[in-house]
Amino acid sequence: MKREIKFLFYFILFISLISVTSGRPMYMKTFVDFPDEVKVCTTCHVQSSGYGGLNPFGKDFYESGKSLTPELMQLDSDGDLFSNIEELRAGTNPGDSGSTPKEESPGMTAIIAISAITLLVIIRHTGKKRK
Prior knowledge:
Distance between the termini: 110 Å
Number of helices: 5
Oligomer: single chain
Radius of gyration: 26 Å
Order of helices and strands: HHHHH
Structural class: mainly alpha
Shape: elongated
Strand content: under 5%
Helix content: 40-55%
Mean pLDDT: 82
Number of domains: 1
Largest sheet: none
């Protein structure tokens, strides 16, 4: 009898550990093309544990059938002036208005172009004085 109880105890413990380690829902595979920063519970939920209800993006995601539809991607679920697709691509949370994509600094191309224009203006300006 003790042996059966011990076996049952370990079996229940094993099953409960399996369910804890596979807590990520299957529909998170939907986010496979996006940065790892958005592959967390808080992308859709208020709390990192997945409890506490859904944030604005989570509600919109649920209403879209737990699918990243074109309509959902164009929405700005959290009202921060960035569409959901912009936020997901940037690795920020589309359900948190305090999480927004950072402005990119001008690339090397822009710096070279501005430098070339400035140099041309200087050359042209100094050339007029010589005549």
